[in-house]
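Internal ticket - ligand job 125, protoporphyrin IX containing FE:
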Amino acid sequence: MTLDRRFLLCGFAYAIAGMGLGIYMAASHNHALFVAHAHILLVGFVVSFIYGLVHKLWIAGARTRLAVFQFYLHQLSTLLMSVGLVLLYAGLVPDPTIGPLLGLASVGVLIAVVLMAWLVMRSPG
Ligand code: HEM
Ligand code: HEM
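stdout (structure tokens):
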């Protein structure tokens, strides 16, 4: 499967999870998880969607090793960030325990955006 399609489908998975969480928060009148909800949707859905568009429109679905690595780095970091934020804001795991994991996930998301910028700069288009 092409990387643009993979990004798109992963993005939709985060949209479903994030909106599900939003509906749960609204229905339960408990908004404690809103930071997790916001980042699942923005980092998971919106940013993955944008990466899918970048692949389709600017880097012609580049399938280099770097592009594949960038895909996995963003997806693994986002998954780690999403699960970590839910555990933190649900009060299931304390800050000092989950903090390093969230820090790692954040750096992963950051490196992935730098790599995507690099892929765009290197593409001929
Ligand atoms: C089924 C759809 C959705 C439902 C039911 C829903 C529900 C909620 C609820 C209950 C809150 C907490 C509000 C608060 O306490 O301040 C919230 C916050 C938020 N939602 Fe959603 N949401 C939905 C879709 C989305 C989507 C699609 C996005 C972005 C792509 C989004 C982004 C955000 C953000 C950024 C916040 C935090 C706002 C703030 O800083 O106060 N939500 N949402
Ligand atoms: C490395 C990735 C990121 C990190 C470490 C990060 C961290 C944070 C932190 C610490 C907050 C404050 C949460 C609080 O209220 O206690 C926050 C809020 C927010 N961030 Fe991010 N963020 C990241 C990526 C993004 C991206 C990519 C977007 C949008 C595309 C985004 C949108 C928001 C929004 C709308 C808020 C306010 C709503 C909320 O409090 O959840 N963030 N972020």
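Auto-summary: Residues 70 and 115 are 6 Å apart (CA to CA). The mean pLDDT is 96.
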